[in-house]
Amino acid sequence: xxxxxxxxxxxxxxxxxxxxxxxxxxxxxxxxxxxxxxxxxxxxxxxxxxxxxxxxxxxxxxxxxxxxxxxxxxxxxxxxxxxxxxxxxxxxxxxxxxxxxxxxxxxxxxxxxxxxxxxxxxxxxxxxxxxxxxxxxxxxxxxxxxxxxxxxxxxxxxxxxxxxxxxxxxxxxxxxxxxxxxxxxxxxxxxxxxxxxxxxxxxxxxxxxxxxxxxxxxxxxxxxxxxxxxxxxxxxxxxxxxxxxxxxxxxxxxxxxxxxxxxxx
Amino acid sequence: xxxxxxxxxxxxxxxxxxxxxxxxxxxxxxxxxxxxxxxxxxxxxxxxxxxxxxxxxxxxxxxxxxxxxxxxxxxxxxxxxxxxxxxxxxxxxxxxxxxxxxxxxxxxxxxxxxxxxxxxxxxxxxxxxxxxxxxxxxxxxxxxxxxxxxxxxxxxxxxxxxxxxxxx
Lengths: 265, 168
Prior knowledge:
The complex is a heterodimer of chains A (about 260) and B (about 170). Chain A has about 260 residues and is of the alpha/beta class. Chain A has helices at about 15-20, 25-35, 45, 55-70, 90-110, 130-140, 155-165, 185-190, 220-225, 250-265; strands at about 5-10, 40-45, 70-75, 85, 90, 115, 145-150, 170-175, 200-205, 235-240. In chain A, strands 3-2-1-10-9 form a five-stranded parallel beta sheet. A three-stranded parallel beta sheet of chain A has the order 6-7-8. Chain A has a two-stranded antiparallel sheet with strand order 4-5. In chain A, α6 links the parallel β6 and β7 (about 145-150). In chain B, a hairpin with a 5-residue loop joins β6 and β7. The interface between A and B is large, with 37 and 38 residues.
């Protein structure tokens, strides 16, 4: 067992270049490995181009590629859809089906968790989707995790965690939640720690070698993780602001962010 | 009815009222979604095989402006203006994955074919004899419903682009 957290890359970081045809999913995985990433997060409807019917051959290919480069797939990120078309709004059962499918895809891919996106507007006690999916998560040993992303605040998520009190349910704090501008206390980050199984290290600009990410109290957040002996994963999530030509090169952005995160580990 | 900038403003305002503090400004959003709609600079003439006859027309590729795939059924509307002339909505066809073809007005029913972020949808407009060789002004507007996953929904995105494209 290592006593350090695992640093990796979310493939979401490359999306602007993926859309422009400047990089492929395979090349993004190879790039992440080349800059010292130990783990990878990928996103269902972003990185499997045949979604919602990904080909088994593609699932195995991605799994093999990540492993052959000495990395692990740490999170199969899922989007729980509200609508399947302008004419069809998803029922609770549809959402249960979506989450169950993600558990199975994560299982096939060997990912220990799947990030889900719904539920935040639902009272925890009424959240039947999580309740109905947890037994399958347990059976296949895939944790369900919910992301806290700006402008959300941790309170409700903590309530859900306390309510279910399940080792198959965890939190993914995204650092954007603690933007200086949002004014949330660092204590609210500490409160998330007992449930935190994965972290999104967000940045919007290329970080100079001796510079700092200007929007987020990285040093404080990373110190809290380290002081609390967090040994889970943290992935660089590089999201360049639209039309910032300096930030547009996602390879450079990701590399600078991974290096930056390693500074604190 | 096709969404316009006024509609988009309304949706985003609604998002902001739900305390979406980080909702970017309408112009930046519009520009961002608009820029990514068209990648190529050329139009194509071709014929669709209807079985009993061939349908002549021209086409261009339209790219997903969102950051992830979504069902084709989330397409709210597409408007195409060629050399200042609006293409009749009821004639526009969309060519999807594997050559699957639908009329634009049926798009909102398609749940099971998704529009990913790499492969385009081909927009086909019937026209006898196709388009003449040379430059043409193409104006395309897309309104697409979206599920927003971070609590305060934007509900709809829109992009519009006017460019000169070439028919070889």
